[in-house]
Design brief:
Layout (H helix, E strand, L loop, with lengths): L4 H4 L5 E4 L1 H12 L3 H4 L8 H11 L3 E4 L1 H11 L6 H13 L3 E2 L4 H5 L2 H6 L1 H9 L4 E4 L2 H9 L4 E3 H9 L4
Parallel strand pairs: 1-2, 1-4, 2-3, 4-5
Helix pairs in contact: 2-4, 2-5
Length: 165
């Protein structure tokens, strides 16, 4: 059986994850058991984390300060002492992620701002030079209409259980 994730996300690609998927990646790599109980990633499973990790192998991650801030805000509900330790871990991860910056005033002038908000407007701006992987159905549909390079995480889930002959 050959899995088709590389059909969607080729090796060497520059990848931007939506905030929820980046949080899943970070929580799962910190402690995979947290996926079961941390409410901010409760829509995902350990198998989703493993899939995401395998899809990202050999690729480089890029984010914006807006995406990184949203991940920080989502993780802020962790209790102590876990919260402090997790944020120390997150700080080390941030150093491994390329960061593209766009002024908020520039993003607010984009049509995506009124549709999706600041973080996703920044993500949409990145789609001109990176592949977007998102768990947001509405966002992926919008980007597809714009002919952007976007992969729905649900498609990746399906590709992993459907053999290619």
């Amino acid at each position: 059986m050959i899995f088709m994730a590389d059909r969607y996300v080729p090796r060497g690609a520059r990848i931007v994850l939506d905030s929820n998927l980046l949080l899943l990646l970070l929580i799962g790599s910190y402690d995979i058991e947290m996926i079961e109980w941390f409410k901010r990633v409760s829509d995902f499973t350990a198998a989703d984390f493993n899939l995401l990790e395998s899809v990202l192998e050999g690729k480089s991650l890029v984010a914006t300060p807006h995406i990184l801030t949203e991940v920080s805000n989502l993780a802020n509900s962790l209790g102590e002492p876990l919260k402090t330790n997790w944020f120390l871990y997150y700080g080390k991860w941030i150093a491994r992620i390329a960061e593209d910056q766009f002024p908020a005033s520039e993003l607010a002038a984009q049509p995506e701002f009124s549709l999706f908000g600041l973080t996703d407007a920044a993500l949409c701006k990145l789609c001109s030079n990176a592949i977007v992987i998102t768990a947001d159905y509405r966002l992926s549909g919008y980007l597809r209409k714009r002919e952007a390079l976007v992969v729905s995480f649900d498609e990746l889930r399906l590709s992993e259980i459907r053999p290619e002959f």
